[in-house]
Design a protein that fits this description.
Pfam families: Peptidase_M28 (PF04389). Its cofactor is Zn(2+). The chain is an alpha/beta fold and about 400 residues long. Helix content is about 40%, strand content about 15%. The radius of gyration is 20 Å and the shape is globular. The structure holds 2-acetamido-2-deoxy-beta-D-glucopyranose (2 copies) and zinc ion (ZN). Zinc ion binds next to loops.
Length: about 400
């Protein structure tokens, strides 16, 4: 009884922190879903103890998976560090400050971005959102991941020249929960440059989640949008027969919604192996332009690398047709945080200020046809940013 009251109190307190979230609806509905049987098609143990970190200055706490789901539904952000309680940071030499280039490859970048279109993003996102949920512990989440791997393969086959195709590898980074992270690498022309100046990373997360994980989660904006945005950048680069000087990798993480699980596994493995990473940029939510607001590219300024962030602003000025705006997102906000944690430089661009972002996320309403505010042309601006970032940092071997 006491503990029941304590947990009720706790929910109320968390609810206050979470502001406008429908706490009462969630408590009533969640009782029904989270106290009953786990439905078919999900492999999750709600009683499993997980180690969760809510901020930099608090010690991590043990809680059940059920409590973790509840905390997320109430708007809290965290790393689930159960699988990576301790981690080895990347060697200090790799994290050493390197100067960012001045934007100076307009002649190479502009023809590529002129050929980017919304067509592929529309068909890819229609398919990606057709899975009932892309939850990382669901069968449909595994199926959506397999579809993504297949689609990347088709795009490679269709757009890469034979020489370029030889430089491309598509790998599944396996996770114990079923849905794997997907890693696409274009090998750079110079191994020496990659070793010295690092691999260039762009990331998005492929998984989606309803606040109550057993309910449908189309995840159109969060983060289907980022997932197909970087895919279009990839297609455009292939169509232009792009060969980087340094290695370039596109990452589609699994289990961002479970507490950045996929990206932590990948980032800590790269750090352990001493892989040199030039920088990592995350795109999580790229579609929404709130009615009555100016169309902008949100640049997150907290828990990111300041120099890389400044470099992104210059890329937006050079390659996007809309301005950037600073915003904040909080601790453990998306997968870039997993890279900063192990000592690499990372940054995060998002659809708008956090305040003006899509409020349908983590619900059945995160659909691409929910409102004209869901805008593929807005996503295209982020594809341009991606191409600019890659060519400017990884170079172009001609
Ligand atoms: C690494 O980057 C620096 C700065 O852009 C450049 O001068 C140098 O040649 C690069 N290293 C290699 C091996 O290409
Ligand atoms: C852009 O598209 C045009 C017309 O489809 C094509 O001729 C051209 O080669 C493409 N350029 C690049 C850089 O992909
Ligand atoms: Zn999310």
């Amino acid at each position: 009884m006491l503990s029941a009251i304590a947990s009720l109190l706790c929910v109320t307190l968390l609810g206050l922190q979470a502001g406008a979230l429908p706490v009462d609806d969630f408590s009533v509905t969640s009782q029904k879903f989270l106290s009953g049987e786990v439905p078919a098609g999900f492999s999750i143990n709600l009683d499993e103890e997980r180690l969760v970190q809510f901020s930099e200055d608090e010690t991590p706490v043990w809680m059940t998976e059920r409590e973790k789901i509840r905390a997320k539904a109430l708007g809290r952000k965290f790393f689930d560090i159960t699988d990576t309680p301790t981690f080895m940071p990347a060697p200090a030499s790799l994290a050493a400050l390197k100067a960012y280039p001045k934007v100076n490859k307009q002649g190479l970048v502009k023809p590529v971005i002129a050929n980017l279109t919304v067509d592929g993003m529309i068909t890819n996102l229609q398919k990606f959102t057709s899975f009932r949920t892309r939850y990382y512990r669901s069968e449909t989440g595994k199926q959506s991941q397999q579809w993504l791997v297949q689609r990347i393969g088709e795009i490679t086959e269709q757009y890469a020249s034979t020489d370029l195709a030889d430089l491309i590898t598509i790998t599944e980074f396996t996770h114990p929960w079923g849905q794997n992270s997907v890693i696409l690498r274009i090998k750079g022309a110079s191994e020496e440059a990659t070793a010295q100046n690092g691999t260039v990373l762009i990331g998005a997360h492929q998984d989606s989640a309803n606040m109550i994980p057993f309910l449908p989660a189309p995840g159109a904006d969060d983060d289907g949008s980022g997932s197909v945005t970087i895919l279009e950048a990839y297609r455009g680069l292939l169509a232009s027969n792009y060969t980087p000087v340094q290695d370039v990798e596109f990452h589609w993480y699994s289990a961002e919604e479970g507490g950045l699980l996929g990206s932590q596994a990948v980032a800590s493995t790269y750090a352990q192996r001493g892989i040199n990473i030039h920088s990592m940029i995350q795109l999580d939510m790229t579609a929404w332009v709130k009615k009555g607001t100016r169309e902008e590219i949100g640049i997150v300024t907290d828990y990111v690398d300041a120099d890389l962030t400044q470099f992104i602003r210059t890329l937006v000025d050079a390659y996007c047709s809309i301005p950037s705006v600073d915003t904040q997102c909080g601790y453990a906000c998306s997968d870039h945080a997993s890279w900063s944690k192990v000592g690499y430089r990372s940054a995060f661009a998002i659809e708008s200020t956090f305040e003006n972002s899509d409020k349908n996320v983590h619900s059945t309403n995160d659909r691409l046809d929910i409102s004209p505010e869901f805008d593929f042309n807005h996503m295209l601006e982020f594809s341009k940013l991606t191409v600019g970032y890659i060519v400017e940092t990884a170079g172009w071997a001609k």
